[in-house]
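User: Show me a protein chain along with its predicted structure.
Assistant: Here is one chain, sequence first, then structure tokens.
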Amino acid sequence: MHIDEKTVRKIADLSRLEIKDEQVAPYQESLSQILSWVEQLSEVNTDGVEPLTSVHVSEMPQRDDIINDGGQANCVLANAPDKDLNMFAVPKVVE
């Protein structure tokens, strides 16, 4: 597939790229080669092939869903203004 100068400039505009006049010809050639390669891919028979997100079939490792406090109370409250309360004290906003 051949890409013309007008199409290259439109793609650059949509991509918010500023290209100079001397850059148009190389972009024309590159984009034409890319689209030719994509056209070759469309010739491949993919009937019966399920879509993949990866060629490696794997399942995400999962842990047991156990509720706990995290055991990090001291670390979390290290920057609390009043550590004696063992919580973050927030001043009253609404009366």
